[in-house]
Amino acid sequence: MTRLDGKTVLVTGASRGIGRAIACELAAQGAKVALNYQSSDAKAQEVAAQIKQSGGSCILAKANVADPKEARAMVKRVTEELGRLDALVNNAGITRDRSIRKMTDEDWVEVIQTNLNAVFFCTSAAIPVMVDQNFGRIVNISSMNGQAPAFGQANYGASKGGIIAFTKTAALELARFNITVNAIAPGFTMTDMLSKVPDNIQQQILTKIPLNRFAKPEDIAKAATFLIADGDYITGQQINVNGGAYM
Ligand SMILES: NC(=O)c1ccc[n+]([C@@H]2O[C@H](COP(=O)([O-])OP(=O)(O)OC[C@H]3O[C@@H](n4cnc5c(N)ncnc54)[C@H](OP(=O)(O)O)[C@@H]3O)[C@@H](O)[C@H]2O)c1
Fold this sequence. Notes:
The protein has 247 residues and is of the alpha/beta class. It has helices spanning 17-28, 41-53, 68-82, 105-133, 154-174, 192-195, 199-206, 217-230; strands spanning 8-11, 32-37, 57-62, 87-90, 136-141, 179-186, 238-241. The chain has a single domain (8-241), classed as Rossmann fold.
């Protein structure tokens, strides 16, 4: 018997990085996991194979969560396939870094659409299911850069700050249905997203992290698993998993 036996979870952006680690950890704890991703078929299949080889259970749920119709249809399909939806992890995210002076409308809109609007699309599709169950756990992956400014990330910071504000209102509105809504704000985490940052900037960032290392995706996965498995009386909160880089 593991902590999440019988539970079903949808993780968006589960083909790589933090989403992948969250999906693997939740599956290791006994949950049936739906792995959403946008385009990395081979990577998503690799995650599914890893979960199944370890005795876990999962399905693939390819969809662009930035598209409201696709996102909602995907949540519906996953719920039908898994039979219920106990938890939703809104993790999918992108960066289009540029100073505001150079940022295009496309850079702005694409990031807000993928990182923030998609959280609304998936959450609003999951709510009727969770209300019927009188149970739900929603975890939104924000960022330290939604709490503190980062040069070149006005779009990203706005999307991640928006997630924190959304999380609090959703928590307030949904508590009466035994649905908790929380955010995790990771610091710099070793994934494809961080690898896009030039090496010299990465070295500068490292000097500002008291624990003196970047997070591993598994560090974030532990917090998500805690909220889903043990966070029954925690709602409207943000857990900062950032090595002390923002206090
Ligand atoms: N890495 C960090 O330092 C860091 C720090 C704080 C917060 N975060 C946040 O943590 C989350 C995961 O970041 P990461 O570093 O793991 O990123 P990543 O390695 O770049 O992976 C991004 C994931 O999101 C998926 N995705 C992107 N756009 C999508 C869309 N429109 N529809 C469906 N899936 C989509 C990707 O799918 P495909 O593979 O199909 O493209 C991939 O699975 C993001 O929300 C990010 O903002 C990251």
